[in-house]
Amino acid sequence: MAPPSHAFELMRRAVLSLAPTHAWVRPLIDPRQTSAIAFLDSRLNYFPQRSDTFDAGPRPGEILPECPLTICTGAASGVGFCTDLLGPHFTALYFSEVGEVPRDLAATCERLEAVPLPFSLKTISQRPAARAGTAAYDHTGRLFPAYGAKPGTLYLVRPDGHVMARWRDANAEELAAALHGALNL
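User: That's the sequence. What structure does it adopt?
Assistant: Structure tokens below.
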């Protein structure tokens, strides 16, 4: 099947943008006939060469796939999904063994959040987190392999849920450069 035309894609996006607030539009959307669009050549993708070291997971420009997680919220926790960690801002997902974050990455993220920049760091641990502030725990053991992640991996996700950049080993300077580049286009 040929890819959808540009005009068709613009129409599909218009319908999708109306769906949350206009009930009459919802029947026009058939989830069996729609799929996420990958923007592999987007100017919002940064450091695509870093993806060469991954054997799995979404590439820059691809939508963030779902996977169940235990979401940690203070003393309470419950089952949720990857996209529950996202918000109306850029989100860095840092993969950790038990919730620890390297000092240089933590300091860079604190500076970025203080600017104020539409940004948030979320830590996902392989095992139940020993560190307060960990956002989620991979209780199924499926997320790390599905994302080609190991402790130290970092994904930067745009507010629309597309991966913007990913690093096998977190790079705080490149993270800051990607965010500043995207916001200064």
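The chain has two domains: 1-35, 38-183.
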